[in-house]
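retry 2 of 3: previous attempt timed out while embedding flavin-adenine dinucleotide. Reduced batch size to 1 and resubmitted. Inputs unchanged:
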Amino acid sequence: MPKTYQLVVIGAGPGGLCAAITAASLGLDVVVLDEQPSPGGQIYRGISQTPDDRSALLGADYQRGADLVAAFKASGAQYWPQTTVWSLNSRREIGILRQGRASIIQAERVIVASGAMERPVPFLGWTLPGVMNAGAAQILLKTAGVVPAQGTVIAGTGPLPLLVAWQYLRAGVKVKAVLELSPGTNLWRAAPYLPGALVAGDYISRGLKYTLDLNKGGVPIYYGVSRLQARGNDRIEAVEYGWDILGSDRRETIITDSLLVHFGVIPRTNLTKAAGCQHIWDRGQQCWRPQVDRWGNTNVPGIAVIGDNAGIGGARSAEHSGRLAALEAARSWHLISTQQRDRQAHNDLKWLRKDLRVRPFLEALYRLPDSLLVPPDDEILVCRCEEISAGQIRQAVREEHGDPNQVKFYLRCGMGPCQGRQCAPAVAQIVAAENKRPVADYTTFRVRPPIRTLTIAQLANLESSES
Amino acid sequence: MFKRLREFNEQTVTVNIEGEDVRVPLGETVAAAVLVHNLGYTRTTPISGAPRAPLCMMGVCFECLMEIDGLPNTQACQVQVAEGMKIRRQQGVGGSDA
Ligand SMILES: Cc1cc2nc3c(=O)[nH]c(=O)nc-3n(C[C@H](O)[C@@H](O)[C@H](O)COP(=O)(O)OP(=O)(O)OC[C@H]3O[C@@H](n4cnc5c(N)ncnc54)[C@H](O)[C@@H]3O)c2cc1C
Ligand code: FES
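retry 2 succeeded.
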């Protein structure tokens, strides 16, 4: 029989940490699992190890994580770092890999807080070494102080490219250009949401500050870029970009051995899909996400999802949703009454609503055009692992493989090591576009555990530990 | 190419990257270490043999698969360096000549 734990939180980002702190304070036995060596999640990666000078250049937003981690350490919740969850099912059995050993634990209740990943957007040359996600480069900066040696170009959409460029500016890293790929018309679509966004906090003023500092620092920012290509043989040698507006097709080239790309973040749904949670297409966020109520509850009893894992709301919202899910957990064991839960939730619900008011603005401002969601050129590699191109996928759809899972089995698209994490969104978009139907009519690939490959030896050990 | 913002004064370990002994700071991931070592690529694809390098640094792209201490298919961005560690690129499916 697997060992049983009362509350297991998957992920030690701001969401998971707040859930654990609150749950522990209400008397629950909490275990927090995270594959990283230290707590903090994506935004506060490596916060407890980062030297002071590096932490300072990352900005005040990053430093905020230190208080959160300190509160977590004092909370009494158990913390298992370097523990990867490779499966979760509707019976709340959790497959974990810890110090090279695979085992299964049982949870009475699970809070999934595994966060988001950078949205994969296939474009010509995106598989060349030297092309990296901007958030990935930021992880190198946060955890290791490692930066591009000969400057870089940052391209894409969303607030993160600006933030990373700003952090590089402070670190003395040359940013040759920032290429903003959201259409210029987004500005008008976003404008009506600006007043709400201003209520949410200092998001807009921070974005403006980053932009002003970049201007002062001589970093060129190009807006409304509609074409992006990485060129090179065995690695990137140049970035080609341009505008196709009103018949003009201006092209520019920058010589660079590094291109960082970012197209917003989307929830990591492999665990929640494996567990049988219902997912819905979110039109604002242009991605699928688990369907949850205000407490994070899903359709699967005892499994809640919070933070960016449940839909992109950012770190502050993750904190609120974590506390709300913890209150609900305590209520489920009658440690607090429903009235007590609601009373204690009052402030978090209020702040959550306020914080989320920036989202419609950001979603409209950084809304991806179809030309980024649906890879336009047939030669673009969509499935990086099995090397399947957009053209092959379109062909398969025309040959009556009219749904993402059919495409997967026909082409092996999404069956490589990443298990479709990098190609699933684009495959669904191509299928929908070819069938001339809304993408919301489809689901992405089915997910079967293990969601992380295990070695034969690990599996063998697992069997003996269970018998 | 990548570099460290400053030379480390932290504790270091010596790892072996494709036959070369390299001193790296303790706590760094293998992916960070090979990027700074300017290895260029970390694996080749099983289908066309194309070179690939780390893309996500958070365990979701599997482009950083390397052979670490003889174990193929290991995500270099999820493993921290250790004294004496042997790090090799993964060629194709990996493990064929191990
Ligand atoms: C690469 C990247 C960089 C980002 N940088 C910033 C930033 O600088 N500023 C900002 O405001 N926002 C940033 N974000 C957005 C981010 O999503 C934040 O909003 C915030 O970190 C979300 O908090 P969270 O608690 O929901 O999840 P996260 O902070 O993402 O935490 C999730 C945790 O779950 C763990 N995990 C995931 N899957 C598993 C598994 N299978 N087994 C074990 N553990 C698992 C992860 O290791 C991670 O620590 C970034 C996102 C990404 C993907
Ligand atoms: S770099 Fe993506 S999995 Fe390691």
